[in-house]
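User: Predict the complex with NAP.
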Amino acid sequence: MLVLDGKEVSGKVRASLVPRIEAFKARNERPPHLTVVIVGDDKASHVYVRNKKIACEKVGMTSTIHSLPADITQNELNELLETLNQDDAVDGILVQFPLPAHLSSHEVLKTVSPEKDADGLTYTSLGYFFAGQPTVRPCTPEGVMTILKHFNINVEGMRAVVVGRSNIVGKPMAHMLTEANATVTLCHSKTKNLSEYTKQADLVVVAAGKARLLGKDDFKKDAVVIDVGMHGTGNNGKLCGDVRFEELQGWAKAATPVPGGVGPMTITTLLQNTCLLAEKRALR
Ligand code: NAP
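Assistant: Here is the predicted structure with NAP placed in the model:
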């Protein structure tokens, strides 16, 4: 089985960003800048945010973290986002989800300027994306497409199943695979006999958010399996995905591990998006 090493792909893509960032710096007297907004003290979210900042700095970009108290109001959060929208030194804005229950991600996605939408999730960006127009694209599914391309896995004509239909992962993933000429089935929690679908697929992308949900018996021989899931405690306290990766050896043709598969590519796509947004704004 070919292990689809996301760290390897990430390294290559991040190295290709360095000269772009240098060129941007030479023209604009500063590197591209990503601002990350995090609300509350969820430990895992803080780790993700710190990793994003470190990743920015490693490729020569700068990054600021706005860490806000869990009881901040929607108005206060919106005001901060409006300030960041207006700040010429900020190229990308990312609000770390999930938010505390009293805050609305819908409000956030309406407030962040599409010109600074590093996550590719504002409704304007998604509108362009689903209409097939150039735009920043949602980081996680775009990262998956980059992994497939890197390992020369051509999905054209493949029967693909995506498990999960969130706006962040499942829906844009299904659209990207359709764009790449796969024939796509989108499954979700109300799908009856999920395994019947996944077992017929040449390619399965699993983004259900359920630790170790699928294993060898759910895939056909020589399937390509992409595991988007990320769980801190699903496998005796070890980080694991939605797939029982250890069962796939000798069965799947290729699969992403967790950790070290899709996760690093999500951050890498965020860096690419921020760089692109900075370059676009600088041209105006
Ligand atoms: P989400 O918003 O919770 O969506 C989960 C989706 O899976 C929903 O559409 C849900 O169906 C479906 N689902 C849940 N249980 C299912 C089951 N038993 N069978 C079939 N479908 C099922 O999650 P998300 O934001 O898309 O994230 C999914 C996973 O990816 C999470 O583990 C998350 O931590 C991880 N993630 C990883 C990265 C990364 O960089 N690696 C990035 C983003 C997310 P309904 O619509 O019917 O509820």
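The mean pLDDT is 97.
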